[in-house]
Amino acid sequence: MQGNLSEIDIRSILQLIDLGQRTGELFVKAYSTPVGSNNAEPQQHFPREPSWFVFFLNGQIIYATSSAGSLSRLRDYLRRYKADSYLDKIKVSSVASVNAPEYGYLWALLEKGILTPAQGRSIIHNMVRETLFNLLSLRRGAFIFELGPALTPQLTTLEVSSLLAKIMKQIQEWNQFSPYITSAEQCPIISDPAQLKKALKPNIYNILSHWSDGQTSMQQIARYLNRDVLTVAKAIYPFVQKGIVQLLDQSSEASIVKKSEPLERETKIPKVVCIDDDIVIRETVQSILNQHGYEATGLSDPLKALGEVFQIKPDLILCDIAMPELDGYEICAMLRNSTAFRQTPIIMLTGIEGFIDRLKARIVGSTHYLTKPFGESELLMLVEKYIGPGLVGDSQVNKIFSKNK
Fold this sequence. Notes:
Elements: E1 2-4, H1 10-19, E2 24-30, E3 51-57, E4 60-66, H2 72-79, H3 101-111, H4 117-135, E5 141-147, H5 160-175, E6 187-190, H6 193-199, H7 202-211, H8 218-225, H9 229-242, E7 245-248, H10 263-266, E8 271-275, H11 279-291, E9 295-299, H12 302-312, E10 316-320, H13 328-336, E11 346-350, H14 355-363, E12 368-371, H15 376-387, H16 394-404
Parallel strand pairs: 8-9, 8-10, 10-11, 11-12
Antiparallel strand pairs: 1-5, 2-3, 2-5, 3-4, 6-7
Helix pairs in contact: 8-9
């Protein structure tokens, strides 16, 4: 099941998964609202085009997260239990898929007794509600739901219907804050401390002034205080209206220092290798991905490809199944035997469409399966699902234009 949010909304997608008691994962990617859009309905504002995963077991939600792969959200929740420092000391087992590193770290903390099961469930429940709050606010985007084995092990499950009722009510309340509050990622800063101090009890003022530094978002404050973001927004909304508290967007100058840590990752162009003896497929994949900010390399000889893959060290591998001398199953199995590519997403490309072939691909360790012929949007959505969007920097733009001359 896949499509655009202009055709079906997130709420309906979740209800269909619930009614069908499906097991698998839902991937959703947001699109920016077009400049000049007349959409008058308030909604969450996202500075970039983020994406999310929601994991299901028999129609119930196990876990939900953004696809950024960052541990900052988990670190925020662990701070409440004074356990955030352990993230830098533990090693993660193979419990989490490539799409859920945060989940793997959470389980490692549980296995070591650093968190109790009750604390773990509380964190997951909050993460799911936070993710669904963002997802149910979306109006523009695309989605893919893929049937598959459940994310394991499971600590808890949540019923979709009860969550939807509560979160939709929260979103209706949230929309009333517009245009003063537009995003949970906005960072409050006190512009008139004297006025605020008069209006609040001393303990409340101390809490608010401590976190209102222009660098800590409302979402983070909610995590630290074990509250939902709507409660935090309600508390500061009257003061934002009066100008006593201001909200800074993440892109503002005051937030640059805090957000500078991930810059190294953001400036790295994701590398993709396509192993296929069909020149048309190779060149098509290279053209599409290079134009969208990826560094794509096509390899035609499956025997030589293994050595070249180790030199290139790609972030994702697209591999044809039906090739002479060495087929895709064998290549995938060999790569999975190397520690260098044990966690690298490997997507099998083939014109074969059948259960046995998909099962065999999974057995040898493939991450996903893409049937030929496939379209540009289908390829891009799948690549973005596993390694994020491409980066069109100056060097990449020059490369694109030089190829089009």
